[in-house]
Amino acid sequence: MSIFLFGISHRSAPVPILERLAVTDIDRPKLIEDLLDSPQISEAMIVSTCNRVEVYAVVDAFHPALEAVGEVMGRHSGMTVNEMTKYAYVRYSEAVVEHLFSVAAGLDSMVVGEQQILGQIRSSYASADANRSAGRVLHELAQQALRVGKRVHSETGLDRAGASVVSVSLERAKSVLGGEIGSAVVFGAGAMGGLAAAHLARAGVTDLMVVNRTFEKAQHLAANVAKNHGVDARAVEMDDLTDALAGADVLVTCTGTIGTVVGVGEVHSALARRTAAGPLVICDLGLPRNVDPAAGRLPDVHIIDIEGLRGDEGTKAADADEVAARDIVLAELADYLTHQRQAEVTPTVTALRQRAAEVVQAEMLRLESRLPGLDDPQRDEVAKTVRRVVDKLLHAPTVRVKQLASTPAGDHYAEALRELFELKPGAAESVSAPEVGLEPNAAGDAAKRSSTNIADAAKRSSTNIADAAKRSSTNIADAAKRSSTNITDNGKAR
């Protein structure tokens, strides 16, 4: 099993292409279900922001996974695979891990160092977990990616480049206005809307209006901004948007709605009754775009969108901070790969110890049939002796194979161990694989499945116990017999 990534971002595609592939919260469950319908994909997570759409998956093989993901995203976007491949990037195995760590660090963002991406990754993982599409691999990957992001923001000055796309767009808006922003409308009451409202409040806006399709959410955000920042903030009904725009300097739109939410007609009507001096600056931060681009051709209207922010000086970071952030990414990548390689050898070590335990058990049963006169203390002493011998023989190779597992060629040593002892770690994997990131009910179901797997594994293994015992320890019975004879003789001598 390997990790696979199919993505399109602001670095690889223009906004119209990103708009076609954008994934809303409503789309996400169905897309995840479609991805998991492929026999090639066992886990899936979708990260969709204003400047990227990325599908992370745990897959059996690269090419079948590429075909499966391409088919699902093609149906979603209405694009052919050939159309998407012009703009898409694909990563596999270790390259996926490095990419996600860089994304979490803010190194791949339009505004280098922005912190909002951490919340977006956390939300994407939570969605995958809720849809039961994130297993052990994606759980560990997402959790370490979040840790990378936190380290970068606490140990470097990377986030000094800019808090987010919101802050950069508002700085651009102030430049257009030639001064401070007096009155503003925020369309959208989600995470981006909250960030925009907070930035506007800190920038000294005196009149802030919040619009949202769900009026209660607009009221909640306006109340929070008023309480936390001491700004005159209020919620506005959708029907009153035109009146609100007539007196506003800036409109910030940031909804995840597919399709236009502010049309050219609404903007034209607002201009006809305009009371504010100067132009109306529209910061369209939605993906897909929330405002009809034709509105930008109206007199006294200036639109700032994701496309227009590319290459802005405010989106860049200092070289030293970027180098420090990349060093953290590489260090965390090495740590992650070491942990994964060691985890991969664990089923083999478990299978070896399970095989040894089966051999000991088989030989003890054989000993009892040959020496029925052994009492319990004698039988226990023989069993302890045999187990000590087996443990000492296995200690060095199991410790060493775990150490070697952290190297790039570590799996070769595990494979040699499997070959030498004729191990089938698949059964052991079902016993030892950790269940993580599960909800309480799911954990109970997993435990039930695990216990069934243990019983099945034991049943399968027991059919070969006699042969395994004969191959691995032909002299154990004789040694045990001599040991028990000595114990009996010593007892008589006493």
TrEMBL record:
Biased composition (Polar residues): 449-494
Binding site for NADP(+): G188, A189, G190, A191, M192, G193
SUPFAM superfamilies documented for this protein: Glutamyl tRNA-reductase catalytic, N-terminal domain, Glutamyl tRNA-reductase dimerization domain, NAD(P)-binding Rossmann-fold domains
One matching Pfam family: Shikimate_DH
Pathway annotation from the record: Porphyrin-containing compound metabolism; protoporphyrin-IX biosynthesis; 5-aminolevulinate from L-glutamyl-tRNA(Glu): step 1/2
Active site positions, chain numbering: C50
Tetrapyrrole biosynthesis glutamyl-tRNA reductase dimerisation domain ranges (all copies): 325-423
Enzyme class, spelled out: oxidoreductase
Domain Quinate/shikimate 5-dehydrogenase/glutamyl-tRNA reductase, first and last residues per copy: 183-310
Reactions listed under catalytic activity: (S)-4-amino-5-oxopentanoate + tRNA(Glu) + NADP(+) = L-glutamyl-tRNA(Glu) + NADPH + H(+)
Family matches, as InterPro entries: 4pyrrol_synth_GluRdtase, 4pyrrol_synth_GluRdtase_dimer, 4pyrrol_synth_GluRdtase_N, GluRdtase_CS, GluRdtase_dimer_dom_sf, GluRdtase_N_sf, NAD(P)-bd_dom_sf, Shikm_DH/Glu-tRNA_Rdtase
Residue numbers spanned by region Disordered: 431-494
EC annotation from Swiss-Prot or TrEMBL: 1.2.1.70
Site (Important for activity): H99
GO MF, any single term: NADP binding
Residue runs in coiled coils: none
Residue ranges of every copy of the Glutamyl-tRNA reductase N-terminal domain listed in the record: 7-156
Sites where the protein binds substrate: T49, C50, N51, R52, S109, E114, Q115, Q116, Q120
Record keywords: NADP, Oxidoreductase, Porphyrin biosynthesis
Family indicated by similarity: Belongs to the glutamyl-tRNA reductase family.
Note: During catalysis, the active site Cys acts as a nucleophile attacking the alpha-carbonyl group of tRNA-bound glutamate with the formation of a thioester intermediate between enzyme and glutamate, and the concomitant release of tRNA(Glu). The thioester intermediate is finally reduced by direct hydride transfer from NADPH, to form the product GSA.
UniProt function note: Catalyzes the NADPH-dependent reduction of glutamyl-tRNA(Glu) to glutamate 1-semialdehyde (GSA).
The protein's assembly and partners: Homodimer.
NCBIfam families: hemA, PRK00045.1-3
Domain writeup: Possesses an unusual extended V-shaped dimeric structure with each monomer consisting of three distinct domains arranged along a curved 'spinal' alpha-helix. The N-terminal catalytic domain specifically recognizes the glutamate moiety of the substrate. The second domain is the NADPH-binding domain, and the third C-terminal domain is responsible for dimerization.
UniProt-recorded name of the protein: Glutamyl-tRNA reductase
Source species of the chain: Williamsia limnetica
Gene that encodes the chain: hemA
